[in-house]
């Protein structure tokens, strides 16, 4: 149980958030598939990304790591001599399924209790259209056996708006014989596509931002990748800056890829005082974000808004809990299959603070209030990193001390979270 800090005098200062989780995973993956050395800086040393490093080491790739700097020596993959342990990481699991589907060997994958409940048919089914053979448990979950096959090109329409599923399909398409077209339901984060272009792949997205064309055959070559700051980590401090009285803070070098900036749009819609300074960048868009305490108006989100803010929806709920009026999040049924059922767990934790949240099958209705009436000061992450951090941000605004159970899960994506908080409290 961790005693959570309060912030009666607000949060101040400037912070550089850790490297982006999605981009860190992909840099290791592409570095492993490419020929030659890939040098990665500002890598996120969170548990999930370390799971990716370990998996590729188990697949025979030499990877040296010194803190946030990695060198990946790409030389092709070899069969692992044991089951690959995916830990808590959905991204490692789903993207690696796409990579291993076209390998020349069989692999096994296992995961922790939470990951072993998460749906994997959403990957095995589209991959089957390329000729992949992936066996899952009878529930469609891990453990999985991936029998590497010679794949063929395909035209596929994805049924879930998921960057993980899309990326798995892209990896299968790259290993296939012949071109492929992958069509998304809604645009999702496009880091795989952008980084593959940098590594030399023949991949292009149509102007609709939904249709992706992959022409296999080009060799990938090792690159330098500087990982930008993670918007999903910055989002915790943006939320804190907006809701904690007397705050003003700046987040430096944050990735501003438009498929990830949904939280900035939501903050703007809610009337938050937020400003963006765009920075020059060789890779994805980058900038500094400044936020200060703001009076928030309620917000309504629908399915089209969800992919760009998918991981920040617990924070949107927290912002809504502080807004004057009733907010609605709809079209977000994907929240039910994250590290926890985030519709249920977010409603439960905000309920402990006296906030009225109605669970919907695909979202939440949240009645904001100026002052919370804490009913239960024992908050819980339930093993979900983003829920644990949401609770810690809520505590900053609370007038009554709160505690957090299972705070260890935060290291999945943000190992330095509490030390960064200390910096902003000074
Ligand atoms: C991710 C995609 C999203 C996101 C996850 C990271 C990625 O998952 O929630 O944290 O790196 O591709 P889905 O693709 O399941 O929406």
UniProtKB/TrEMBL annotation:
Keywords: Amino-acid biosynthesis, Aromatic amino acid biosynthesis, Cytoplasm, Transferase. InterPro entries: Enolpyruvate_Tfrase_dom (IPR001986), Enolpyruvate_Tfrase_sf (IPR036968), EPSP_synthase (IPR006264), EPSP_synthase_CS (IPR023193), RNA3'P_cycl/enolpyr_Trfase_a/b (IPR013792). It is an enzyme of class 2 (transferase). Phosphoenolpyruvate binds at residues 21, 90, 118, 164, 342, 386. Its EC number is 2.5.1.19. It comes from the Bacteria. Residues 8-421 form the Enolpyruvate transferase domain. It catalyses: 3-phosphoshikimate + phosphoenolpyruvate = 5-O-(1-carboxyvinyl)-3-phosphoshikimate + phosphate. The active site is at 311 (proton acceptor). PROSITE patterns: EPSP_SYNTHASE_1, EPSP_SYNTHASE_2. Its main location: cytoplasm. Belongs to the EPSP synthase family. Catalyzes the transfer of the enolpyruvyl moiety of phosphoenolpyruvate (PEP) to the 5-hydroxyl of shikimate-3-phosphate (S3P) to produce enolpyruvyl shikimate-3-phosphate and inorganic phosphate. Monomer. This is 3-phosphoshikimate 1-carboxyvinyltransferase.
């Amino acid at each position: 149980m961790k005693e959570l800090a309060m912030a009666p005098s607000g949060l101040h200062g400037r912070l550089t958030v850790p490297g982006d989780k999605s981009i860190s995973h992909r840099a290791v993956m592409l570095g492993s598939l490419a020929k030659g050395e890939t040098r990665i800086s500002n890598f996120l040393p969170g548990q999930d990304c370390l799971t990716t490093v370990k998996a590729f080491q188990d697949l025979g790739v030499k990877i040296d790591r010194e803190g946030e700097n990695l060198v990946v020596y790409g030389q092709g993959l070899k069969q692992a001599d044991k089951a690959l342990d995916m830990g808590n990481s959905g991204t490692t699991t789903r993207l690696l399924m796409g990579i291993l589907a076209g390998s020349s060997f069989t692999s096994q994958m296992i995961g922790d209790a939470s990951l072993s409940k998460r749906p994997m048919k959403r990957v095995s089914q589209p991959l089957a259209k390329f000729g992949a053979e992936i066996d899952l448990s009878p529930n469609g979950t891990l453990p999985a056996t991936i029998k590497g096959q010679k794949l063929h090109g395909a035209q596929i329409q994805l049924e879930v708006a998921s960057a993980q599923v899309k990326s798995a399909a892209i990896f299968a398409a790259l290993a296939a014989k012949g071109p492929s077209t992958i069509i998304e339901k809604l645009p999702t984060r496009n880091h795989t596509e952008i980084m593959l272009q940098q590594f030399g792949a023949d991949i292009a997205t149509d102007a609709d931002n939904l249709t992706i064309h992959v022409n296999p055959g080009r060799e990938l070559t090792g690159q330098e990748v500087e990982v930008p700051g993670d918007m999903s980590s910055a989002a915790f401090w943006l939320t804190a800056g907006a809701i904690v009285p007397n705050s003003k803070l700046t987040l430096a070098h944050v990735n501003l890829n438009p498929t990830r900036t949904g939280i900035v749009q939501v903050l703007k819609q809610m009337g938050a005082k937020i400003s963006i300074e765009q920075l020059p960048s060789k890779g994805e868009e980058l900038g500094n974000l400044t936020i200060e305490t703001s009076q928030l108006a309620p917000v309504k989100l629908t399915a089209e808004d969800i992919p760009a803010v998918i991981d920040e929806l617990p924070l949107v709920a927290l912002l809504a809990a502080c807004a004057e009026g009733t907010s609605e999040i709809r079209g977000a049924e994907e929240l039910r299959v994250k590290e926890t059922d985030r519709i249920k767990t977010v409603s439960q934790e905000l309920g402990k603070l006296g906030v009225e949240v109605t669970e919907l099958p695909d979202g939440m209705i949240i009645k904001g209030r100026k002052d919370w009436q804490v009913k239960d000061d024992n908050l819980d992450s339930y093993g979900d990193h983003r829920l644990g951090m949401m609770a810690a941000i809520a505590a900053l605004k609370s007038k009554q001390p709160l505690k957090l159970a299972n705070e260890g899960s935060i290291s999945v994506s943000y190992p330095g979270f509490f030390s960064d908080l200390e910096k902003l409290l000074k």
